[in-house]
Model the fold of this input.
Amino acid sequence: MNSIEIKSKEQGQGTIKVAFATTDLSNIDSHFGSATQFAVYEISKVSTAVSKIIKVTPKDTDATVKALLGTDIVYFTNIGATAAAKLINNGIFTIKYKEVTSIDSEVDKLKDMLNTNPPPFIKRIVEKKVA
Done:
């Protein structure tokens, strides 16, 4: 397991970290357990930036969860119950899409939510970071 980290200038309050299970860095198109990489974005009201690409080589759920620590939300096409429980127990919110979905369109939706009326789970994430 290794990652490529990109330092962002926009870290801080109101920024959420979101990971997407992806094969091509453009789409949410992987099952959590078989994902070979996760694209991690930092999203705020005013900016979005890729902050890290996590490469997953061994199929080790614990190692993958550990690599995602500090992430607020993870998206994927499917997940097993044990892996979902491990993410949730580590404070990572999980979102499953049955269909392949564009990462860019989901990032835009999240940015719009932050700028308008975010759902309760996103409000909790932002409030937890400010507290």
